[in-house]
Amino acid sequence: MTPTGEQGPALRADAARNRARVLRVAREQLAAGDDSLQLNAIARLAGVGVGTVYRHFPTRHALWEALSAERFQELVDEARAAADDEDALAGLHHLLRFTLMRMLDDSGFAAVLESAGDAEAQTSALKAELDRAVAQLLDRARRAGAIRRDVEADDVRRLLCGIEHAVRSGDSDPAHTEVYLDVLLEGLRPPR
Questions:
Q1: Per-residue pLDDT tens over the stretch 126-181
Q2: What DSSP element (H or E) covers 150?
Q3: Which of 98-106's residues contact partners 24+ apart within 8 Å by CB, and which partners?
Q4: Which residue pairs from 122-126 have beta carbons closer than 8 angstroms and sit at least 24 positions apart in sequence?
Q5: Triad 136, 178, 165: Cα angle to 5°
Q6: What residues contact residue 123 under an 8 Å CB cut-off, 6+ apart?
Q7: What pTM, to 2 d.p., does this model score?
């Protein structure tokens, strides 16, 4: 596995510039409200050949992963901070809310977090780091008797993905977001 922050073997200078140009154009498209990320259009706007874009990002999902790397690192950092929180349950609540808000704010990031397979080694490494931090947090919360014994890091991620989908499929009312999150938090508590 490639260490975090790398995308494999070092790129030639021109290839690195092309990759950076494609990412810049894709970010500009997103900032302009276009989240279609059509690889052919991005190639044209970046002034590179379509083959160049597909060499770096063979699929739209691979491009989403590269665009989400910074946001994913923020999530990993939040998970580590939550795992170090003196109050494990408070740390868990904060992390769940932080994650859900980021997913609702960025559908591409949500798709990367939900995906079972990764195109980029960096994404796999970040998911592994996230799982380790969340597992540590859940272990502490279990030892404190604050959550169920049968909940694992992957379960929490899947449940959050379900809430994100439920909010998006409705009217995106912030009140519903809080209700769904409260239901999840209550469901994580140990049976009485």
A1: 999 999 999 999 999 999 999 999 999 999 999 999 999 999 888 777 888 999 99
A2: none
A3: 99/75, 99/160, 100/160, 100/163, 100/164, 100/177, 100/181, 102/71, 102/74, 102/75, 103/160, 103/161, 103/164, 104/164, 104/167, 104/168, 104/172, 104/177, 106/68, 106/71
A4: 122/2, 122/4, 122/5, 122/6, 122/7, 122/65, 122/66, 122/69, 123/65, 123/68, 123/69, 123/72, 124/1, 125/1, 125/2, 125/3, 125/4, 126/4, 126/69, 126/72, 126/73, 126/76
A5: 80
A6: 65, 68, 69, 72, 112
A7: 0.84
Q: How many CB atoms lie within 10 A of CB 40?
A: 10
Angle between helices 153-169 and 121-143 (to 10 degrees): 110
Q: Hey, what are 109's tokens?
A: 């990031």
Close Cβ partners of 164 (under 8 Å, ≥ 6 residues apart): 100, 103, 104, 110, 114
Q: Which of 115, 152, 87, 123 is nearest to 8 (CA)?
A: 123
